[in-house]
Amino acid sequence: MDIVAHGVWVGLGAVWMHRNRRLDRRTAALAVGMAVVPDLIQLLPLGYLALVTSDGWFVLQAYAIALPGYEPPMSPVLSELTHHLHCVMHSALVAGVVTAACWVWLRRLWLPLLGWWTHILIDVFTHSADFYPSPVLYPVTYWGFDGIAWNTPWFMVVNYLVMLAVATVMFRRK
Q1: In which domain, by residue range, is 70 found?
Q2: What UniProt keywords apply to this chain's record, in alphabetical order (predicted)?
Q3: What is the pTM of this model?
């Protein structure tokens, strides 16, 4: 799923949660932040490239909107780095270790991590095997569920219409 949609879905979830259990704005904002961070971290090497090379901005833009099989050419090092950052940030095993460490340290669940978990769960089903499947068991395996590519035009339209419908229902009930 695209970065904005991750933030919107978690934001809607935070509004729903706030209605059923008091949730402060800081926690909600951190959860939305954690929902977009996995994709932003993956883009860091491309962002650096955009700052230091003349064609870097083009590569970053082309990468961000690429359809499966139409990714821009990148150096092997850059390609591997973005791939492994994607794998780390979309791994339930990695998120589980971080969640467990936070639990031990804080002696409770740190609620903003639900944004990261939501990101992983959504991406499992909205990434195809052709284009960055979410490797939920990385580093044990690169396997990822063959879902629908999030950037398929009809899927993006449906996704945003569903978000709009959910938001409309939620805010009308207020």
Answers
A1: 3-173
A2: Membrane, Transmembrane, Transmembrane helix
A3: 0.89
Looking at residue 152, the DSSP 8-state letter turns out to be: -
Separation of alpha carbons 24 and 6, rounded Å: 20
For residue 139, cis peptide bond before it (omega within 30 degrees of 0): yes
Dihedral pair phi/psi, residue 133, rounded to 5°: -60, 145
Q: Tell me: the pLDDT tens digits for 33-50?
A: 999 999 999 999 999 988
Instruction: Quote the CA–CA distance of 117 and 112 in Å, as a whole number.
Output: 9
pLDDT single digits (tens) 56-71: 888 888 887 777 677 7
- For residue 94, the surrounding DSSP H or E stretch is helix 92-106
* Selection from 56-60, 113-117, 138-142 with the highest mean pLDDT: 113-117
Which tokens sit at 65?
């909107």
How much is the pLDDT for 174? 58
- What single DSSP character describes residue 71? P
SS3 content of the chain, % helix, strand, coil (to 5): 70, 0, 30
Distances (CA, A) of 92 to 2, 85, 129: 19, 14, 17
Tally the domains of the chain.
Answer: 1
